[in-house]
Amino acid sequence: MSFWSRIANTLRGDHLNRELDEEFQSHIEEAIAEGRDPIEARRAFGPTLHQRETSRNIRLIPWLDSLRADIVFGWRQLKRNKITSATAILSLALATGACTSAFRLIDALFLRPLPVANANHLYELARQGTGFDGKPNTFDGWAYPDFQLMRAATKNQAELIAVSYAQRMDLTYSSDQETEKAYIQYVSGWMFDSFGLHPALGRLFTEDDDRKPNANPYVVISYDYWTHRFGRDPKIIGRTLRMGDTLYEIIGVSEQPFTGTEPGTITDIFLPTMMHPSVTRSDTTWHRTLAIVKPGIPTEPLRQQLNTTSRAFERERAKGFTGIKKELIDRFIDQTLVLEPAATGASNLQRDYRRALGAIGVLVALVLLIACANVANLMTALAAARSREMALRVSIGAGRWRLVQMVLVESALLAFFAAIIGAFFAWWSAPFVVSMINPPDNPAHLILPADWHVAIFGLVLIFCVMLLFGLLPALRASAVKPVSALKGGDDPHSRRRLMHSMIAVQVAFCFLVVFVAGLFVATFNRLSNRPMGFSTDRLLLLETVAHHAQPPVFWDQVADDLRSVPGVEAVALSGWPLLGGNSWNGFIAINGVITSPDLAYFLPVSPGWTSTMKIPFLDGRDLRITDTSPGAAIVNDTFAKTYFNGENPVGKFFGKGNNRYEVVALVRDAPYRSLREPILPTAYVPFHQVDAKGAPILTTSGTFLIRTSSANPLALAPVLRQEVPRARADFRVSNIRTQAELVRAQTVRERLLAMLGLFFAAVALLLAGIGLYGVLNYSVLQRQREIGIRMAIGAQRSVIARLVTARVFSMVLIGAIAGLTLGMASVRYIETLFYQVKATDPAMLILPSLTILAAAVLAALPPVIHALQTDPVIILRTE
């Protein structure tokens, strides 16, 4: 018979049996018709069952047939134990789904190569050393003149590519349209060719487009942007857009898979690096440097050549530093260039979430192990209940591998149904987690395809899970001894010892999950409740741009117009909002000498800004409309402590570069860039800035701070958006958000870790509790006779309770100690994710201990009550 016919016969077993029986009967009838005695004829052909089995083995595939039979039998077993099966399936589904979801995130951010040629030869250049603050630092920003020198020095060994940090920029497609935002990247003109990319429409940049500053105002848009913004309109080529004062022409669309070099950000518009305003400046680091190393070129000599060139550039640049101590300059120059693999690209999202996603991955793996241990205990209990069945199977000739296969098939069915439910959970949860990574106005964009990467991971995961929870019960079931089982079974204590040890493992992992989750929650609470130094209540931020640079007086006129809008309580102006991500810093000189390595941070503000922000004055006066920068300055308390030894700085002077400032006020501290970092020395200088000749410096952007009388400041947003261009036609509001949103955005990562930590802690506790309940309930059932005898001879209820729980609670204690040890050992790997929290804090140790104890008590109550309700009369009568 053909192979496919044997497979078909395997899948239609009952029909094949009928065919064989009919064929066997026809042969007997033929023999009888030929005159043979019916009894002799049947005896000659042998037993019907034997003939059927022999013929079946020829007409089908025996191992496939046994597998089919085991699947049918396993399905019946699952239906027979509905509650146990449902519990196991849901436990595994939740754990495997969470694992797959975590893998999708990690794969998209850290494992998936960029869709470019030679991705495995792609590296990012970074520098490691000691910063001006004396702390270890890794920095990947470069000045373009430095990049040009390095590219020329290594042109025969590697191709260097400059790629700016992706940023959201304001742009318009015609003068009468509202400003819109898009992600842009300045890239080397030869990037597309070096990456082996082709245009989907038009043409891409060439090296000729990137030779002279401001010479080629062209842009290439991504396929994704072309799709969602223009509906793949082929007439987009030649259309113009305006960014700032420059009009750009769209010359092409990049091919579909490529969305930029920053995982987590989909670039909309690419521009030549020579169009960047800082392309000729040696003191501005604004782009990353990627290197495609040519085949056969060793990376270490290349790194040394790049390091030598870069150091020479920095040494030459440092000659222009004045008033800075030599040791600070040496520290600045003494940095080591490193080549970091960048096959998956390079982004701030990778840097910020590498440890966070690693921690989530570990928590998910622990929950998976808890689920596997839980299901293994359930399978062990079911196998114990079927010991007589297994003994009978062995007695009639079933081999050990046959029994292992039968139990593993049942485990595979559990894993299969869990995988289906887990796949739906992973499909939903991964995008949900991504949506929480960044604030709503600047969300992360990760490509999360459910392709062969995810499929292979899911299959391997399910296979490993099946072995983890199914192999040990299968081996124990197959090792049954018929004589021993039929007499009452092996020593029941050995099986209980195995289940108890699994409880210890579950508790250890559960303690670790709860312990780490508690640290994440405490971090989020302390960071969220950190003193602000200002009030976010009813504070609206209007981030505004002008088509052309405008004098400060025009910005004042818009502020005056906004003050007349009903519902507006106060209006002030600043260069950018606190905690908005922008910064401006420099070294501070006292009496012409830079004595501190600390950088001071500056923020241009209008008169009344401190009162609008509700930052308290400690001494001095507010800025006046006649104050300009350089000139007057308000400084915070940390500034005074850093540069004036804590003395009152009001009336004193300091310098920044060639500019000189008089301190007119001292105010309380407020966070400038981040809630996580210590308070920075900050100077608030007038928004009205003048050049060396005293002429006003024109400004293209600013932020209006609106304190509203309404509890919901966003209610005024539509009115204020229209009011700004009505006051001055050249002004447009590019973004509106509240100060409270900016503060919440500072805790996105911590909120994500706290939420997921709590979720996984709850799942771990639930699974561990179910496992503990299952073991105790099994123990009560197995020891029911002993309990009945003890109660009959007068044992107290407390004695019975201790008898039932003592062994299990000792395992809980051992598991908790092991979990604490694991937690203390692992904390050092994730301590950078904590804020003002220590693993040795008493609360951090007591909380998981009490939580585990409470879960254990709740899980133990039903079995203990069941044991105490045992009727010794019924037990003894049964015996």
Structure description:
There is one protein chain. This protein has four domains: 3-60, no CATH class; 119-348, no CATH class; 351-529 and 747-876, no CATH class; 539-709, no CATH class. Helix content is 51%, strand content 16%. It is built from 27 helices and 23 strands. Helix 14 packs antiparallel against helix 15 (452-478). It is globular, with a radius of gyration of 37 Å. The two termini are 58 Å apart. Residues 362-479, 759-872 form the ABC3 transporter permease C-terminal domain.
Given as residue ranges, the uncertain stretches (5+ residues, pLDDT < 50) are none
As for the number of domains, it is: 4
The outline comes out as: globular
- The tally of helices reads 27
Tell me, rounded to a whole number, the average pLDDT: 83
Gyration radius (Cα, Å) is 37 Å
What summary fits the major beta sheet?
7 strands, mixed
Strand content: 15-25%
- Beta strands, count: 23
Give the structural class.
alpha+beta
Helix content: 40-55%
Taking the alpha carbons of the first and last residues, their distance comes to 58 Å
Protein name: Putative permease
Subcellular location: Cell membrane
Transmembrane segments: 356-385, 406-430, 450-472, 503-524, 752-778, 799-825, 845-868
GO molecular function: transmembrane transporter activity
